[in-house]
Amino acid sequence: MNMKQWLQQVRVWLAALLLACSLPVLAMNLQQAMNALPNAKAQGLVGEQPNGYLGVVNASADAEQIAKLINDARRAEYARLAKENNIAVSDVEAMAGQKAIERTARGHYILLDGNWIQKR
Questions:
Q1: Which of UniProt's keywords are assigned here (predicted)?
Q2: Across-strand partners of 47?
Q3: Average confidence (pLDDT) over 63-67
């Protein structure tokens, strides 16, 4: 292997290393997901479900990550509320889902009878 080939190989390895190190930075955190939620709803990427959680209407990496992060936070909050009020988590989820659907803006998606529809 000559010097030119060796330098090219080193550059490739360095580029791969930099990419690998930057991947965790590309991951979204909960605050970023919360900030991205209104736009994701307006674009029809995610919508509210009767079970109190976000659902992915049109699959994309961002939509799935937003839904996962926010649903994880909701799940923890529902569990806390259920324990605090001595009721079942499923009851908290149902109440939260009903409120979320009621509060959903016109034109945003909600899940009704297993189908995504735009709220009118």
A1: Signal
A2: 55
A3: 97
Q: How far apart are CA 102 and CA 96, in angstroms?
A: 10
**Residue range of the domain that includes 76:** 28-118
Distance CA 3, CA 95 (A): 68
With beta carbons less than 8 A apart as the criterion, state whether 22 and 16 touch: no
Please tell me the predicted confidence (pLDDT) of residue 11.
61
- Which structure tokens are listed for 10? 């080193």
| Domain total of the chain | 1
CB 56 within 8 A of CB 63: yes
Is 1 part of a structural domain of the chain?
Answer: no
Chain centroid offset of residue 34 CA: 9
Q: State whether residue 15 is helix, strand or coil.
A: helix
Contact 41, 109 (CB under 8 A): yes
Q: Is residue 14 part of a domain?
A: no
Q: What is the pLDDT of residues 5-34, one digit of tens each?
A: 655 665 655 455 445 544 444 589 999 999
Q: Is residue 41 part of a domain?
A: yes
